[in-house]
Amino acid sequence: MKICCIGAGYVGGPTMAMIAKQCPDIQVTVVDLNQTRIDAWNSDDLPVYEPGLDEVVQEARGRNLTFSTKVDEAIAAADMIFISVNTPTKTFGMGAGRAANLEFIEKCARQIARVSSGHKIVVEKSTLPVRTAEAVKRILSSSGNGATFDVLSNPEFLAEGTAVEDLLKPDRVLIGGESQEAIDKLCDVYAKWIPRDRILTTNLWSSELSKLTANAFLAQRVSSINAISALCEATGADVDEVARAIGTDSRIGPKFLKASVGFGGSCFQKDILNLVYLCEHFGLREVAAYWEQVVSMNDYQKQRFTERIVKTMFNTVSDKKIAIWGYAFKKDTNDTRESAAIYICRDLIRERARVVIHDPRVSEGQIRATLTEACTDMQGNISDLDKRLIAENVSVAKDCYEASKGAHAVAVMTEWDAFKELDFTQIYDSMQQPAFVFDGRNLLDRCQLEKIGFEIHAIGKS
Ligand code: NAD
Ligand code: UGA
After folding, report:
1. Does the interface predicted TM-score (ipTM) exceed 0.95?
2. Residue numbers annotated as active site
3. Could you read off the pLDDT of 210-250 as tens digits, one per residue?
4. Neighbour tally for 231: CB within 10 Å
5. Residues annotated within a binding site
6. Which of 4, 11, 158 to mutate for ligand 1's pocket (most ligand atoms within 8 Å of CB)?
7. Domains in the chain and their CATH numbers?
8. pLDDT (tens digit, 9 = 90+) per residue, 102-158?
9. How far is CA 234 from CA 222, 258, 418, 459, in A?
């Protein structure tokens, strides 16, 4: 059996590496248009940072795992083709800011139709609006070479930072389809290492919709606890204590109740907005408004954090140095897409603060590029002032000590474990007084820091 995966990103790369590792008898080729990305997958410095991923790739690469830019060739040779390309929020035209941009999916389907012959199984791995498979099937049926296709939906549920563990022991694998034979073929691949009772099968539309729904429910939990964090700050309740108290109710459960500076990542916001757009499309205005509030609450949480910094620091951060610890959207990843840190830093420099950022996995180039993007409007314009602020008021430090030296405040944006193990007395002595800490992740030991002399402000704690 030969598998081809189009898209060597955060999903395509790790997912296919795991299939190749667990199924040595299957030839897996991951293709992408981006030569730099493919070169990185073929090097010792993988484009995706994930604990344990290097070992998985090393085991299979060169044996039955190949990374290549020869897209046509890989499609033509494959029995099963996964589409794992990006499906970002549309930034132009109808549905801009909400609908998913399906341009890349459609291009893949057309390319598969063009170069295929015989029978192939096409698997939707990307997260897609419900009923996308209908369009994919129609495009595929236009194949001029007499090729035939079965289309399956097999959404991915891995989380970044724990991708290897999630792929190795998923809570479930979901496969939606019409042809039992095609479903069985994909089941057989996963069954090499995943118990059969964890492989769920549904119809195509349920599978497509379950992915959007899972992300909406997960994000909703974060927004719910973040909403409560605002009330905790106003009343003297402690959000971690509230989370523990409600999380022990087995119907609620303890996971995904960590209050934070706001959820980030490439998917939660995009998938909820996509769900909102779909509901509006089907005339379900109340349902759309319900889900949209999850995103609004997240925006409020980010904005509230910046406001708290400014208000606490005597209503001005102008010309003050603020150390930003962490820039990735969560720990153990180098991904910064939609990271709360981007928006907090943008708003702080617009208040004329000087931010000094340290993240163990994010480069200076990536930091400047994401800030520039966050200051750019839908028409592609960025003001001269924002450009100047990014150039002059943003710098990048090699570690937290360097970032905090001479700073008026520290803001914790990402919950990297290493941030808990620092010499806080040394940091305190090197900072301006009063030394403020704004802990956007409730990561640090409040008692320890207060004993040293820090003034600490954490999420959901007064
Ligand atoms: P990504 O941007 O990291 O990777 C997508 C890749 O597809 C890019 O490298 C791009 O160059 C390539 N590509 C686009 N069009 C192509 C084409 N026509 N031919 C060849 N290559 C092409 O995206 P990602 O984070 O891997 O996400 C992919 C999909 O998986 C999205 O739909 C996303 O919603 C979903 N998803 C992501 C995650 C996650 O943790 N990132 C988890 C579950 C699901
Ligand atoms: C999320 C889902 O967890 C995956 O199941 C899904 O496959 C993926 O989106 C996707 O479709 O892309 P991911 O975004 O990688 O995974 O990471 P999460 O662990 O879900 O965290 C998302 C954001 O929520 C992060 O910024 C995280 O810090 C934040 N978060 C999470 C909280 O603030 N509190 C929590 O309790 C949990």
Report:
1. yes
2. 267
3. 999 999 999 999 999 999 999 999 999 999 999 999 999 99
4. 12
5. 7-12, 32, 37, 85-89, 126-127, 156-160, 211-215, 251, 258-264, 267-270, 329-330, 337, 441
6. 11
7. 2-202 (3.40.50.720), 268-458 (3.40.50.720)
8. 999 999 999 999 999 999 999 999 999 999 999 999 999 988 889 999 999 999 999
9. 19, 18, 31, 11
